[in-house]
Amino acid sequence: MAVISRGFHRRHEADIVLPPGQHLTTDFPVLSAGPTPHVSLERWSFTITTEAGEERRWTWDEFLALPTEEPAVDIHCVTSWSKLGTTWRGVSLDVLLGDVGTSAEAAMAHCYGGYTTNVPLVDLRGGKAWIVHTYDGKPLRPEHGGPARLLVPHLYFWKSAKWISGLQLLDHDAPGFWESLGYHLYGDPWKEQRYRAQ
Ligand SMILES: Nc1nc2c(c(=O)[nH]1)N[C@H]1C(S)=C(S)[C@@H](COP(=O)(O)O)O[C@H]1N2
Ligand SMILES: [Mo]
After folding, report:
1. Distance (Å) from CA 107 to ligand 2 centroid
2. How far is the CA of 86 from the centre of ligand 2 (A)?
3. Is 181 touching ligand 1 by the criterion CB < 6 Å?
4. Among 4, 49, 74, 134, whose CB has the most other CB atoms within 10 angstroms?
């Protein structure tokens, strides 16, 4: 096997700055609050519902026809593992929200299986969030959120809703599943916003 020059193909460990309280992992843990829902691609759709109740819906084929990006991002789970340089492919929320008329402040992500999580709309725009269907060059595995999941890597990974079915736009931010159980409403890993003040 060829000798790989360390630090060329990967970052030197000494150069890595992780959010406070995080440690590196090289595997990809699965964290799910319930069983993995299996959604057939014929039944799958993604719906944005505005605060006025207007709906914009994409079937799987319509979703696949949208322009894609390939974000390479670090992810940070609130249980303290971080994984660097994960590579995905999917559709930017800028594309999906592009022609949606809204003055909403926040979005609630809804999922097949019932999970919810809230994200301010400003955090879904500006090249910061995607609906991804591919991980590491392969279709996203069901346990990691396939057919498609939200990816919003600048927030703790619980915000990256697996098996996403839609976004409900809200006039005011409101807690989702984990946020109602005490997790932080926003979840910035660099500010260590793991839990809400009691
Ligand atoms: N629908 C759904 N999405 C979810 C979860 C979940 O339980 N259900 N868990 C969240 C949490 S707490 C984390 S850390 C990540 C884990 O993603 P992974 O299993 O692909 O590592 O998914 C997030 N998205
Ligand atoms: Mo998590």
Report:
1. 19
2. 16
3. no
4. 49
| Cα–Cα distance for residue pair 52/50, rounded to 1 Å | 5
Distance of CA 59 from the midpoint of ligand 1 (Å): 23
Burial 6-15 (b: 16+ CB within 10 A, else e): eeeeeeeeee
pLDDT above 60 for 25 = yes
44 lines ligand 1 (CB under 6 A): no
pTM over 0.90: yes
Q: What is the mean pLDDT of residues 90-100?
A: 97
pLDDT tens figures, 167-177: 999 999 999 99
Which ligand 1 atom lies nearest to the CA of residue 79? Answer: 14
The β-bridge relationship of strands 130-135 and 149-151 is antiparallel
- Residue 160 CA to chain centroid, in angstroms? 3
Query: Which residue type sits at 181?
Result: L
Strands (E), 26-139: 45-49, 55-59, 72-76, 81-92, 106-111, 116-120, 130-135, 138-139
Distance 145 CA to ligand 1 centre (A): 8
Evaluate: CB of 119 within 6 angstroms of ligand 1: no
